Amino acid sequence: MAQASSTATGEIWASGYNGNGELGNGTLTNTVALTKIAGAGTGFTQVSAGHYHSYGLTASGQLYAWGYNNYGQLGNNSIVTSSTPVLVTTPADPVDSANPSAPLGLG
């Protein structure tokens, strides 16, 4: 499990298990020392470190994700794991999985 924190300048520093790129530093190397997340210059204001993937939110409202992605949990229309932050995308016409015929009307 990774642990992460953000600074006032939008940098995110993380340490821990990194077998799936959870630390977002462009490697798959575990570390006990804090390491800066790649692309953290985008000005993250919040970060959430998960068990196998993590998320960062920017001041402008953009959501980034990194780590394990076998079920599409990074939200970038892919199932490819990423060791660096990728932009979470919104589908053009999102639907409620419990009621697929009813659009959510987010866009």
Task: Describe it.
With 107 residues, this protein is mostly beta strands. The protein has one domain (2-90). Helices cover 0% and strands 43% of the residues. The chain has a four-stranded antiparallel beta sheet, with no helix packed on it. It has a three-stranded antiparallel beta sheet with strand order 1-2-3, with no helix packed on it. The chain is globular and about 45 Å long.
The spatial strand order of the largest sheet comes to 4-5-6-7
Mean pLDDT: 80
Instruction: Find the count of extended strands (DSSP E, 2+ residues).
Output: 9
* Shape category: globular
Number of helices: 0
Strand/helix succession: EEEEEEEEE
Class from helix and strand fractions:
mainly beta
Unreliable stretches? none
Strand content bin: 35-45%
Largest sheet: 4 strands, antiparallel
Helix content: under 10%
Rg (C-alpha, Å): 15 Å
Q: Span between N and C termini?
A: 34 Å
Query: How many discrete structural domains?
Result: 1
Task: Describe the SSE topology.
Blueprint: E1 2-6, E2 12-16, E3 31-36, E4 44-49, E5 53-58, E6 63-67, E7 82-87, E8 95-96, E9 99-103
Antiparallel strand pairs: 1-2, 2-3, 4-5, 5-6, 6-7, 8-9
Features:
single chain, mainly beta, 9 strands
Summarize the structure in short.
This protein has 107 residues and is mainly β.
